[in-house]
Specification:
150 residues, mainly alpha
Length: 150
């Protein structure tokens, strides 16, 4: 049965599911499967094994966080608002980590031998992180607003 509360929660849930799918599969595809991205990451012969290990660790972490969020979002019953909020928090973790990694000395969003196009002055991966974090923020705000209205 659909109630006004569950109807209002469907949009935030759908936004979070979209972000969860990108989170679960994005790093795997971009860093390992898609040839252009893989050549800059796990299939980059210039990268030492330890750097590849950390990229693989990030890929597995992203898959796990995406799956955990999808499980939370797929569950039905009471506590929907808190599950959506929790899923949004979990999904924000790798994207905030990506942005936070830029603050460490000696790091770069891409290796200098790769000429990476920018979109509105941002590396595509950074732009994706900003967009996905904005979607999660919208989902969390709608859930919060729905909670206050009821």
């Amino acid at each position: 049965m659909t109630t006004p509360v569950t109807r209002n929660l469907s949009a935030p849930r759908l936004l979070a599911v979209l972000v969860a799918l990108v989170t679960a599969f994005g790093a795997l595809l971009a860093d390992f499967v898609i040839p252009a991205g893989a050549a800059q990451h796990l299939r980059n012969d210039a990268w030492p094994p330890h750097a590849k290990f950390h990229d693989a660790q990030y890929i597995v972490l992203s898959i796990l966080l995406g799956v955990v969020a999808l499980v939370l979002l797929a569950r039905r019953g009471g506590g929907t608002r808190s599950r959506v909020w929790t899923a949004c928090t979990i999904l924000a973790t790798p994207w905030l980590g990506l942005l936070g990694a830029m603050l460490f000395p000696g790091t770069a969003v891409h290796d200098p031998e790769f000429d990476t196009e920018t979109i509105i002055g941002l590396h595509p991966q950074v732009l994706l992180a900003v967009i996905l974090l904005a979607l999660l923020l919208v989902a969390a705000l709608v859930v919060t607003r729905t909670e206050r209205e009821n």
